[in-house]
Design goal:
Strand content of chain A: 25-35%
GO cellular component, one term (chain A): glycine cleavage complex
Order of helices and strands of chain A: EEEHEEEEEHHEH
Largest interface: A-B, 13 and 12 residues
Oligomer: heterodimer
Protein name (chain A): Glycine cleavage system H protein
Order of helices and strands of chain B: EHEEHEEHEEEHEEHEHEEEHEHHEEEEEE
CATH superfamily of chain A: RNA polymerase II/Efflux pump adaptor protein, barrel-sandwich hybrid domain
Function (chain A): The glycine cleavage system catalyzes the degradation of glycine. The H protein shuttles the methylamine group of glycine from the P protein to the T protein.
Radius of gyration of chain B: 21 Å
Radius of gyration of chain A: 13 Å
CATH class of the largest domain in chain B: Alpha Beta
CATH topology of chain A: OB fold (Dihydrolipoamide Acetyltransferase, E2P)
Family (chain A): Belongs to the GcvH family.
Helix content of chain B: 10-25%
CATH topology of the largest domain in chain B: Gyrase A, domain 2
Cofactor (chain A): (R)-lipoate
Number of helices of chain A: 4
Helix content of chain A: 10-25%
Number of domains of chain B: 2
CATH architecture of chain A: Beta Barrel
Mean pLDDT of chain A: 94
Chain lengths: ~120, ~375
C-alpha cells in the first residue's frame, strides 16, 4: 500500500511504496508548464541525490528545466520507459511517467501535502 | 514608461475560445499553441493545420512604375513577375545586409502586394515609400486592415475547395483552386470584399495563404474550420517554427539579419545582379568580399538533445567554428536538426562537427538543406 503523495516547491512529487522506497516524478502542473516533453536527463542507479539540488534536466519542445531532487538518498532505479518515450511525462505524470526510485533515510520536513501544493499552484 | 499593450488580431477571441496559450511576437499577442506543439506539427504533415498570420504586414504598390519601384527597392527582378505569380525576395540595406525577407505577389499589371514579417513591417513600409520616390507609384501600408489565414498540409486543397464553394465566395471556382500552381495567386471576393488565395507557405507541405480584410477574418476562419472538420487543426507559432526549420526555411532574426549578406544564407540567387540595374544594396553586394565569411548550413545529430539558437558549433578538435541560429528535435524526422552559420572550410556536407549542448559535446554532421521534403 502506498502512502500519500508529497510535493516539492519545484513541482516534483514523492510517493513512498510499501518496500520503503520513494518513487519520484514531476507533477501534472509541471508537465503542463513544460509542454511536450522530448528528453529527460536522469541520474543513474547508485547516484546520490540531495534534497533541493539539481539532479537532471527535463526538456520540452520549447525549453529545458532543471530537475531538482525532492529528497536525499540513493537512486535505485531509473524509469527506462520514460527515457525511451519522454511523452509519458505528459500522458501520465503520476503513474507511467515516474522518473526514478530512490532509497532514503527520512523525508524532508518541508515537503508539501496535496492541499498545500494545490494552493501553491493556485488551482 | 508604461508597457505598450500588445496588438491583437481579428481572430483573438477565437483563439481564446480554443484555449490557446499566447505569446508576445513582435508586439502581437499570438497563439503559440492550442493543444500540443507536437500534435499540431504532426497534423500539418499528415492532414492540415490552420494558422492565424494576421500579424504579418502587407504593403500595396499601385501605379505604372510599381514594378520598377520594386526593382529598385528589393533585391529581385520584380518587374519581370507575371500577373498572378508570387516571388520570394529580400529588402537590403545600403550595406547589402537584410532588412527583411518578403513574398511579393503581382496582382495586376500595376498592382503588387509585398508581404513582410510582423517585426519588420513598419520599416519595410517606410523603406518602400522612401525608395519609391521618383517613381509613378502609390505605396499603401495595409497591414492593419488585412487578415491572413494559412491552411497547410496534404488535405488543404480539399478543405479550401469545400470552403470556397460557399455562396459568399465569388470569382474562384473549385477547378481554379485545383489548378492553382505553387507560388501563384488568385483573386476573388468573400462577402463582397477582396480575397487573395495564394499557393504559398512556410512548411514545404501543399498549402494556401488567404488574405481578406480584417472584418472578414472570423467568418473565413469559421468557414475553413467547418470545411475541414477534424482534418483541420488550429496550429500556433511553436509548430510553425518546427515546421519551417524542418523545411530549411530562414526566420528573420535567426538566419537573416542586417549583418548577414544574402549569399551567406544561401540566398545569393535571390539577388538579381544580372537582370536589372541599380537597386538599394547593389554596390555593397558587388564589392563584398565573402572570403572566409561564415555560411549557413544544416546540421543533423543523433539522440534527442538538440542544440538551440546560440549553441556553439565546434570542430572535432574542439575549436569553436560557428553558432546555431535555430535548432530543435525534429518532430517529423525524430532527431535533432539545426541551422548554423559556420566557417566555410567546415561547410561541406558530411563534415563531422560537435555541438555544445548546455556544456555537453554532442556529435553532429553537416547535411544539405532542407531536412524534410514532401515525398
Amino acid at each position: 500500500m502506498t502512502t500519500e503523495l508529497r510535493f516539492s516547491k519545484d513541482h516534483e512529487w514523492v510517493r513512498v511504496e510499501s518496500d520503503g522506497v520513494a518513487v519520484i516524478g514531476v507533477t501534472d502542473f509541471a508537465a503542463g508548464q513544460l509542454g511536450d516533453v522530448v528528453y529527460v536527463d536522469l541520474p543513474e542507479e547508485g547516484d546520490t541525490i540531495t534534497a533541493g539540488t539539481e539532479m537532471g534536466e527535463i526538456e520540452s519542445t520549447k525549453s529545458v528545466s532543471d530537475l531538482f531532487s525532492p529528497i536525499t538518498g540513493t537512486v535505485t532505479e531509473v524509469n527506462q520507459a520514460v527515457v525511451d518515450a519522454p511523452e509519458l511525462v505528459n500522458a501520465s505524470p503520476f503513474e507511467d511517467g515516474w522518473l526514478i526510485r530512490a532509497s532514503f533515510e527520512e523525508l524532508p520536513e518541508d515537503l508539501l501535502t496535496r492541499e498545500q501544493y494545490t494552493e501553491l499552484v493556485g488551482e | 514608461m508604461l508597457d505598450q499593450p500588445l496588438n491583437a488580431t481579428a481572430l483573438s477571441a477565437i483563439h481564446e475560445g480554443l484555449g490557446a496559450a499566447f505569446t508576445d511576437f513582435a508586439g502581437w499577442q499570438m497563439p503559440v499553441r492550442y493543444t500540443s506543439d507536437l500534435a499540431e506539427h504532426h497534423a500539418v504533415r499528415r492532414s492540415a493545420g490552420i494558422f492565424d498570420l494576421s500579424h504579418m504586414g502587407e504593403i500595396r504598390l499601385q501605379g505604372p512604375e510599381a514594378g520598377q519601384a520594386l526593382d529598385h527597392a528589393l533585391a529581385g527582378k520584380l518587374s519581370g513577375l507575371s500577373v498572378g505569380r508570387a516571388k520570394y525576395s529580400l529588402m537590403l540595406t545600403e550595406d547589402g545586409g537584410v532588412v527583411d525577407d518578403v513574398i511579393v505577389y503581382r496582382l495586376a499589371e500595376e498592382t503588387y502586394l509585398v508581404v513582410a514579417n510582423a517585426g519588420n513591417a513598419p520599416e519595410v513600409a517606410r523603406e518602400l515609400t522612401e525608395r519609391s520616390r521618383g517613381h509613378d507609384v502609390q505605396v499603401r501600408d495595409e497591414s492593419a486592415g488585412i487578415a491572413l489565414i494559412a491552411v497547410q498540409g496534404p488535405a488543404s486543397e480539399g478543405i479550401v475547395v469545400t470552403a470556397l464553394a460557399d455562396a459568399a465566395v465569388a470569382g474562384i471556382s473549385a477547378q481554379d483552386v485545383a489548378d492553382l500552381r505553387y507560388y501563384r495567386v488568385l483573386q476573388g471576393t468573400y462577402q463582397g470584399a477582396e480575397l487573395l488565395l495564394a499557393r504559398t507557405g512556410y512548411t514545404r507541405e501543399d498549402g494556401f495563404e488567404l488574405y481578406v480584410p480584417a472584418a472578414q477574418a472570423v467568418d473565413l476562419w469559421e468557414l475553413l474550420t467547418a470545411a475541414g472538420g477534424e482534418d483541420l487543426v488550429p496550429c500556433g507559432l511553436a509548430s510553425r517554427d518546427t515546421l519551417r526549420l524542418e523545411a530549411g526555411m530562414p526566420l528573420y532574426g535567426h538566419e537573416l539579419g542586417r549583418d548577414i549578406l544574402p549569399a551567406q544564407a544561401g540566398l545569393g540567387r535571390v539577388v538579381a545582379l544580372a537582370a536589372k540595374g541599380d537597386f538599394v544594396g547593389r554596390a555593397a553586394i558587388e564589392t563584398a568580399d565573402l572570403e572566409g565569411a561564415r555560411v549557413l548550413v544544416g546540421l543533423a545529430a543523433e539522440g534527442r538533445r538538440a542544440g538551440r539558437a546560440g549553441s556553439a558549433v565546434k570542430d572535432t578538435a574542439g575549436a569553436v567554428i560557428g553558432e546555431i541560429t535555430s535548432g530543435a528535435l525534429s518532430p517529423s524526422l525524430g532527431h535533432p536538426v539545426a541551422m548554423a552559420f559556420i566557417d566555410p572550410d567546415h561547410a561541406e556536407p558530411g563534415t563531422d562537427l560537435v555541438i555544445d549542448v548546455r556544456g555537453k559535446d554532442l556529435p553532429a554532421r553537416v547535411v544539405p538543406l532542407p531536412f524534410y521534403t514532401r515525398d
